[in-house]
Structure formats: C-alpha cells, structure tokens
Amino acid sequence: xxxxxxxxxxxxxxxxxxxxxxxxxxxxxxxxxxxxxxxxxxxxxxxxxxxxxxxxxxxxxxxxxxxxxxxxxxxxxxxxxxxxxxxxxxxxxxxxxxxxxxxxxxxxxxxxxxxxxxxxxxxxxxxxxxxxxxxxxxxxxxxxxxxxxxxxxxxxxxxxxxxxxxxxxxxxxxxxxxxxxxxxxxxxxxxxxxxxxxxxxxxxxxxxxxxxxxxxxxxxxxxxxxxxxxxxxxxxxxxxxxxxxxxxxxxxxxxxxxxxxxxxxxxxxxxxxxxxxxxxxxx
Amino acid sequence: xxxxxxxxxxxxxxxxxxxxxxxxxxxxxxxxxxxxxxxxxxxxxxxxxxxxxxxxxxxxxxxxxxxxxxxxxxxxxxxxxxxxxxxxxxxxxxxxxxxxxxxxxxxxxxxxxxxxxxxxxxxxxxxxxxxxxxxxxxxxxxxxxxxxxxxxxxxxxxxxxxxxxxxxxxxxxxxxxxxxxxxxxxxxxxxxxxxxxxxxxxxxxxxxxxxxxxxxxxxxxxxxxxxxxxxxxxxxxxxxxxxxxxxxxxxxxxxxxxxxxx
Lengths: 283, 262
Description:
The structure holds 2 protein chains of 2 kinds. By secondary structure, chain A is an alpha/beta fold. Helix content of chain A is 47%, strand content 14%. Chain A has an 8-stranded mixed β-sheet with strand order 3-2-1-4-5-6-7-8, sandwiched between helices. In chain A, helix 1 links the parallel strand 1 (4-8) and strand 2. The longest helix of chain B is centred in the C-terminal third of the chain and has 17 residues, at 168-184. At the A-B interface, strand 7, helix 6, strand 8, helix 7 and helix 8 of A face strand 7, helix 5 and helix 6 of B.
C-alpha cells in the first residue's frame, strides 16, 4: 500500500481527493502554484471535516488526524517524495502534459502517476513520461468526499501492477472502483450523453416542456433529478463542453451531436443555478 | 351512461398485447377493482394474473380498451382494428406508443378520436406517472376518460405531443443503446457500466438493469421506431442489442475486463 500521496491542484477536486485520502490514512502532499488556492482549499477541507463530525460520519480525532496528514506545498520538487501522485489540475491537455513531463523528472521510477481527468487521453498523457506503464486514470466524481465512484482508466501501456495499486488506493478511500479502457468520456461521461441529448431533442421538437420532461423522468422513471434540473446543477457550460469533447473525440458520431439549445444558452450566459437562470429561474 | 370511461360505474377493461406488459396492466386494473379481460398475442406467452379472465376479443360492454404491443406492428394493427370494431364508440382505446406513433396508429382505426397513446414499456407502470399522447383527432372526452382511468390506478398523467418514443422510453432506450455500444466496444464490463451509472450519476438502475427490466426486445423496438421516423444514423441500434447482451464472465486481474488483460 502506498503511504504518501501527492495531489496536484488544490481546487474542488484536488482538495476533495486530499480530504478522502487523508481520512483513509494516507500522508498527503497537496500542491498548488497559488498560495491563496492552497489556503482556501485547506479552509474548505477543515469546514467539510467539521460537518462530517457534526453528521457523525467521522469522529473528532479522525478529522483532526486527517487534517494534520495534509501538508500544503508550493514547491513542485517536493512531490518527488510521493509514492503515488494524483493530478487534479484544470482540464487542459497542455497543462497536464507539462505537469507529467515535470513529474517524470522528479518521482521515483516505480511511483504511480494518476490523472483525475474526465475526458483527456491517459495514453496521450502517459506517452510523455519514461514510464507510461505507471500512468493511469483515476477519475473521481464531484464532490469526491461524497461520491462513491472512481473510474480507473487504463491507457494502452498501463501495467496491471499500476491498476492494482490505484484500485487498492480507491478501496482504502472507501470508494467503489470500476475499470475502463482509455476511450472518450470513459464510462459515465459517455453513457450519460443520451440522458441530456435526447431530452434536449424532445424539448427542441416541442414534444414537452423542460418542466414536464423532468417530471416524467422523475415520477415515471424514478430518477432523482430530471435532465434539465441536472444540467442546471452541473452547469450548462460544463455539460456542453463535455458533450462537445465526446462528440469531437468520436469524430462527429451523430449520437453525441450537441444541441443548439444548449449552445444558445451558453452564449447567453444562462448557465444554470450558478448564474441564477438556466432551464429554470433561481432566486 | 354518459361517461363509460369514467369511474362511477365499475370499469370493464379489455387488454390485448404482449407479455409482460399485459400482466402488469391487468394486475394494476384488477387491483383497482376493475373487471379485466385479457388476450395475449399468439406466441407471446404470459400468465393470467389473479382477478383477470382470458377473452378472445373485446366486447360491447368494455369501457376501456388497452392495446399493449410494441414489438410487432402487424399484430398491433390487428389488435387495434379488432378493438375498434367491438368496443363501444365512447370507450377510449389506450395504445402502447413507445415504438409506433399514435399518428401512424390513427390510420389503422375507424375512430381515431378515441385513440390515446401511452408510454407503455415493461416496469414503467411502477412509477407514479404515465405519459399520454392523444392522437391528432382525439377529443377532450377521450383525454379526460384516459386521465380518469389512470387516476383510478393511482397514477398522475402528463400529456405530451405525439413523437417517436414519447419522452421516457426514448431517453431510456437510448441510454441502453449507448451502454450496449460501449459494451460491444469492450470498454468496460457490463456490471461496471451499471455500477458506474448508478454511483456516478445517481440513476435508479444501471442501463443494463433497465434493459433487463424493460426487455431488450422492447428496447430494440423503440429504437427501430425512432430510426424509422427520423431516418437518422443517431438511432442506429447497437449490434450487441441484436445479438444479445452477454453476462459478465469471471473477472480478470484486479477486476479488469478480461479482453484488456495483458
């Protein structure tokens, strides 16, 4: 079992992963170029752990111990001490490539290098390192502290040993792991596309309103949220970007074609809950 | 007898179609105290649920007719024509319209004004709402009668415009189709795809669990209906859905898909 986990990027995902890793007993090196981001992340983790104690999902000593196990770092070279690194930087291939090139120079040859990407190619990222067999996808879901799922994604050169290591890490963190090959959208972001895409077409064809479609999907299908409520929650820009990415990576397969309604809403800045208006209005 | 579809008198329901849709509707109707006669399509199998009786065809005393065939347009056409012939003109005919639009079915009956499409797929009647799509010729009376019928079953209704696959069947069957493409491409194991979709998106069931509940033959029928109506590549059925969805075999190392073991 790996003892020290380096996490690159102290945003929502990086901070959340740091929290679950620390609660699972790993020593965590949390890296970000921005001191402000690190400070904000540690505050979020502290607040979230406090809530966990109040809700009874963690004891006070466990939360305190977890916090002391997270060491914020601004010097990249210190990540060289990690047995495994989970990169959670912004979803930009160039940024990630730069990080993996740099990691390749400082980590031990047997260290596992995981990326929390939701859409970029593990094989492509791995090709930049001397040890592509150690590079693997470890896709957590937002928020990592509450979502049970981790997609473990094997690139074309990822070794079984690497897969086993991240599987053990995911289990230690209390997650359920699923395995998939390095294909656009992996499992969830690919298979979920029709939930949004067909709903948008049904709306566009005037078969039913967004409210009615949501009501049908919830009350007839038993889904917790309808597609439009969910798009508003995720962010229509985020959902649109994922659809576009999967569509383009599949060389314009018609099943994944984005819908003009969504593009118009992105252009209008009506992005869902975060802007107060999407398919619904929020006060 | 102003409202033969209404709830004042005991309803007499005649249901024709395929298993297990017929059993699901017949059980719900019998459970709600209705008199239920059923006729299974030849070769569809099916067990007579408690409280229902087998009948060769509908009759002049039936206050509601329900046609539940998605997988054979020919049989559906025949069943609808029979119902149209024997049921009194004021009795609404509710017809499974997940795979064939109500508009198309309207051409198969002499009295389309009483034809109401319903999003009937196996297992969907467990929900608390049923989507209905009146035919273009349907009058208010038929719509209200069908709403009243579903109210007696404890269900809300949502009226949608006639469209291939209606709302939920179209979304669900396309989810099952995409999962089947992914499985056919061997990107992950069947069980992992179900797990990923329930834990990663909070779906009540994984796509293959849905497929099993609905029936893969029914899923294919809905997809074929979408393809027929829209004529788009988007609605192509995944090859695995035609060949059969295999169960997972023993896991490879670390639960890896066996086909990716190196």
